[in-house]
Amino acid sequence: MKLNDLLHALFTYTQKGEGNPDILSIESDSRAVKDGSLFVCIPGYTVDGHDFAEQAVQQGAVALVSEKELNVSVPVIVVRDAHRALAELANLYYQHPTKSFSLIGVTGTNGKTTVSHLIERIHRNESQKTGLIGTINMKIGDEEFETKNTTPEPLLLQKQFARMRDQHVDTAVMEVSSHALTLGRVRGCDYDIAVFTNLTQDHLDYHGTMEEYRLAKGLLFSQLGNTYDTGRKKVAILNVDDEASSTYEKMTSAHILRYGIDREADIQAHDISFSANGTRFRLTTPDQEREVKLKLTGKFSVYNALAAISASLANGLALDRILENLEAIEGVPGRFELVDEGQNYPVIVDYAHTPDSLENVLVTVKDMAVGKVFAVVGCGGDRDRTKRPLMAKIASKLADTAVLTSDNPRSEDPDRILDDMVEGVEGEYVRITDRSEAIHYAIAHANKGDIVLIAGKGHETYQIIGDQVLDFDDRTTARQAIKERKS
C-alpha cells in the first residue's frame, strides 16, 4: 500500500518531507523494523519511540509517524496522538478485518476469561471456526499463541484479526480489559456483542477511583455503534444484578439483553442448587424454559453461564444446542481447577485476585467442605494497596486458616505487602512469605474432608520478583507437595 493511500486513515496530520513510498509493514517496535516499514513512534512508560527514529530509518523504515518533527531522511507524518494514529492506520492497512466475522467482547472485573472460553467452546462445537483472545492465550481454530496482555496492542490486535479473517473465522471472542479501553487498544474493532460480567474493586492503582474504573468499562458499550442495522444487530449483554449495568444501558444505543439471578431479567436462573459434582438451575428466556445441569459449581459459575448463554443467543445460536454444548464443558484452566493426585482432600487452584472474586470462591468452597478450609492468598506488588487488607480480611473470616503469602511482588518487598495484608486479618492466619512454602504448609496440614484453596495466580506459570520472571505454577507446586506428603 502506498503511503498516501494509507494516510486516508488519518483525519488531521502534517507531512514533513517528500515521498510516497510503498508501505510493506507497520511497526511500533524499532527492533521489528525492516525494509519498507512505516515506523510509528509511540511514547511509552519506560521508553519513547521517538528516541529510536534514526535507528528505524537505518533498518529500512521508509516513513515515520511522530508526535513531533524529526530530522531524518524519510517522510515524517506528524500527528497529535500517535497511539490513536497507530490504531487508525493499522485498521486500514489490514482492511478492517473485524467486519468480516462476528466479534464478541467481554469486559468486567471477574469472569472475563471463563465467559470468553465458554462462548468460544459453545460456538466451536457448532462447527464454527472460532478465534479467542484473552488472558490465558490466543487461539485461531486449533492453533494457540501466547499473549502478553489481556488485550493486545492495536497493531498486533489488527494483525491477528486479519489472520482470523484470512483463515475464515466465523466468530471471535476477546477479553477487553479496562486498561485496553482507556489506552485505546481496541479502537477500530467493530464489536457486534459486548458482555458485562460485574464490577468490583480492582486496578485502583491505575484508575484512581471506582467511578473512573466503572466509566472505563463503559467505553466498550459506548463503542457498539449508534445505528440499528437489522442485518447486523449490535447487542449489549448486561448483568442486571450489578448496579453498573444501569450506567452502561445509558451509554449505549445498542439492543439490550439482561441476564441475572436475583433481579428480573431476560435470561434468568431460578431454583439453583449446588453439589460437589456441579450446579443445577431452571433457566427462563423471553419465550422458553429449560433445566440446566453444569459441571461447574458456585454462584459465580451460574453468572458466567448466563453471560455465555446470552451472548450465544444474541449471536444466533439455538438455545438447546447452546445448553448441550455448555453442559459438556468441565472447566477453564486456573479457574476453580482441581489438582487431583488421588488425595482425600480437594486442592483447588483459582485465579481469584480481587476481594469479590476471593469471597465468591471461598463461599463456594465452604459450601462444599466437610472439614476445614485452608486458603493460600497473596497480593501483587506495585498494584492497588487498598485491597490488600480486604483480601486478608475475607480469607481469614471465611477460611479456617488463611495462609498469607506472596503473589507477584514485582519491585516491592513481599514482607511489606504482607504487612499491609495483616492489617485486615480477623481470624486465624499463618504468614509465610515464600509462596511454595505456603502451598506446602497448607497441603501438609489438610486432612480427609478438608479443602485447600490456592488463590490469586490460577493459570499463570510465572512469578515476578524484582525484575525477574521466574517459572512458577501453583498447580505444579501443589502436585509436588501432595506427592511429597504421600512419600
- Please describe the biggest sheet, giving its number of strands, its sense, and whether it closes into a barrel: 11 strands, mixed
Using the alpha-carbon principal axes, give the shape. globular
Q: Would you tell me the overall average pLDDT?
A: 93
**Widest sheet: strand order?**
9-8-7-10-6-11-12-13-14-15-16
**What is the helix tally?**
16
Beta-strand portion reads 15-25%
CATH fold-level label of the largest domain:
UDP-N-acetylmuramoyl-L-alanine:D-glutamate ligase
Modified residues (N6-carboxylysine): 217
Function: Catalyzes the addition of meso-diaminopimelic acid to the nucleotide precursor UDP-N-acetylmuramoyl-L-alanyl-D-glutamate (UMAG) in the biosynthesis of bacterial cell-wall peptidoglycan.
Domain Mur ligase C-terminal: 334-458
Domain Mur ligase central: 106-311
